[in-house]
Amino acid sequence: MQKARIIVGLGSCGIASGGRKVYEQLQQGIASRGLDLTLEETGCIGMCYNEVLVDVVIAAGTTTYKQVTPEMADRILDEHIVEGRIIQEWTVTEEDEKCLNRQQRIVLRNCGKISPESIDEYIEQGGYRAIERVAKEMSPEMVIDEITRSGLRGRGGAGFPTGVKWGFANKSAGDKKYFICNADEGDPGAFMDRSVLEGDPHSVIEGMLIGGYAIGANHGYIYVRAEYPLAIKRLKIAIEQAKARGFIGQNIFESGFSFELEIKEGAGAFVCGEETALIASIEGSRGMPRLRPPFPAISGLYGKPTNINNVETLANIPWIIFNGAGKYASFGTEKSKGTKVFALAGKIQRGGLVEVPMGMSLREVIFDIGGGTSGKHEFKAVQLGGPSGGCIPSSLLDTPVDYDSISQTGAIMGSGGMVVMDNTTCMVDIARFFLNFTQNESCGKCTFCRIGTRRMLEILERIVAGKGVDGDIELLEELAENIRRTSLCGLGQTAPNPVLTTLKYFRDEYEAHIKQRRCSAKACKELISFAIIDERCKGCGLCIKVCPTGAITGEKKKLHVLDADKCVRCGQCVAKCRLEAIIRVDRW
Amino acid sequence: MVKVTIDTQEYMVDESGTILDAARSNGIDIPTLCHDEQLEPFGSCWLCVVEVEGERRPLVPACATKIREGMVITTKSELILNARRLCLELLLSDHYGDCLPPCQAACPAGVRVKDYIDLIRDGKYQEAVEVIKENNPLPAVCGRVCVRPCELACRRNLVDEPVAIDFLKRFVADLEMGDSLQSTVYSPQSMDGKRVALVGAGPASLSCAYYLAGMGYGCTIFEALPEAGGMLRYGIPEYRLPKDVLDKEIASICGHGVEIRCNTALGRDFSIDSLMNDGFEAVFVGIGAHGSYRLGVDNDGSDGVLSAVDFLRDMGLNKEIKLKGRVAVIGGGNSAIDAARTSLRLGADEVMLVYRRSRAEMPANEIEINEAEHEGIKYHFLTAPVRVIAENNRVQGIECIKMELGEPDASGRRAPVPVQGSEFTIDVETVIAAIGQFPETACLAGEQDVQLGRGKTIVVANNMAVGRAGVFAAGDAVSGASTAIEAIAGGKRAALAIDQYLRGEVSSEKLLKEFNVSKGSLDEVDRGEFEGIEKQARVKMPELEITERLKGFDEVELGLSQTDASLEADRCLKCGCNAVDKCYLRSYGIEYGVSLDKFKDGKVHHYLIDNSNPAILRDPNKCIRCGRCVRICLEIKGIGALGFVNRGFETTIEPTFGKPLAETGCDSCGKCAASCPTGALEFSQV
Ligand SMILES: Cc1cc2nc3c(=O)[nH]c(=O)nc-3n(C[C@H](O)[C@H](O)[C@H](O)COP(=O)(O)O)c2cc1C
Ligand code: SF4
Ligand code: SF4
Ligand code: SF4
Question: Which chain B residues touch A446 with a CB distance below 8 Å?
Answer without folding.
Answer: 43-46
